[in-house]
Amino acid sequence: MTGSLDRIPCTVVTGFLGAGKTTIIQHLLEHADGKRLALIVNEFGDVGIDGEILKSCGIESCPGENVIELANGCICCTVAQEFVPALDRILSLEPRVDHILIETSGLALPKPLVQAFQWPAIKSRVTVDGVVAVVDGAALAEGRVASDLDALQAQRSGDPSVAHDDPVEEVFADQVACADLIILSKSDLLDDSQRAHANSLVGSHLSRAVKVVPSAHGKIEPSLLLGLELAVEEDIENRKTIHDDELDHKHDEFESMIVDLPSIHRPEDLARRVAATTALPHVLRLKGFAHVAGKPMRLVVQAVGSRVSHYYDRSWAPGEELKTRLVVIGLKGIDRGAVEATLSA
């Protein structure tokens, strides 16, 4: 059996849809300071977008073969089928990796994933260095992720049988409650009062002291996130979450859909259609790639709420199909016809 000192540390990066996890991870990979990293990216839905973006970065510390995508749902629900084989692949890499990053789906609950590190086949080889939750500072300041945290928390504390009508709120709360460090992303968009309000909302979900660190454009000092050496899997019971009394959890409250479109002519026109789509009922997040007619570069499109961004990330590879493919994620009950009509308008 591998000794505890030889176990490879893993950092779990969790956070709600569109909070900025991928941007922060890319910054970590680009500033690894000589460490050889590997990355497991878990996506909700059948098409991986974030992993493909990171594979295309050409970062020496984390080459493409060190990036593994799991795009078939929540990683903590498929430990034996997907997570263990992914770890096996990473641990067999030569040269040996120094640190593993795990980017969870925006819909994942981190605690069940950390509990999976107690499996004998996993615990003997890797350890959870720390859990980092990325929260969207701009959204929190606007109250869009949570409307009334205090009242909701009081209801949950007073009556365990109360129906939870807002699964987004539950996911957010569990991610924060399991964290060892919280990154308040997009802090450059906040003034002092908005930042204080966002910190207050985060703090209302914490039962223990956890530092909240502001970040703009995904920039964060890697030493703050890596090398915490907390062995979180051995301390998981001290992280109290809403779903602790459930034997299992599912993501039946959410669904995703894929929309394929022809080549576009103007990124600005697609951005307007994307913004109109995210304004539709039940739609939470949209991301994907687009082919712009006459352009040799692939366009990345990301949207959450009213914010839409797009940029060219790389050239289309020889023989690669030039296509526009978007993934839409939302609450159960998305009007698929309306989504397709809005994106195709």
Return Rg in Å: 20 Å
Oligomer: single chain
What would you call the shape? globular
* Spatial separation of the terminal alpha carbons: 59 Å
Strand content: 15-25%
Q: What are the salient characteristics of this protein?
A:
single chain, about 350 residues, alpha/beta, Rossmann fold, Hypothetical Protein Yjia, Chain: A,domain 2, 2 domains, seven-stranded parallel sheet, five-stranded antiparallel sheet, 12 helices, 12 strands, about 30% helix
Topology:
Elements: E1 8-15, H1 21-30, E2 37-42, H2 50-55, E3 67-70, H3 79-91, E4 99-103, H4 110-116, H5 120-123, E5 126-136, H6 137-142, H7 149-158, H8 167-177, E6 181-185, H9 192-203, E7 211-214, H10 222-225, E8 254-261, H11 267-278, E9 283-291, E10 297-304, E11 307-315, E12 324-331, H12 336-344
Parallel strand pairs: 1-4, 1-5, 2-3, 2-4, 5-6, 6-7
Antiparallel strand pairs: 8-12, 9-10, 9-12, 10-11
Helix pairs in contact: 11-12
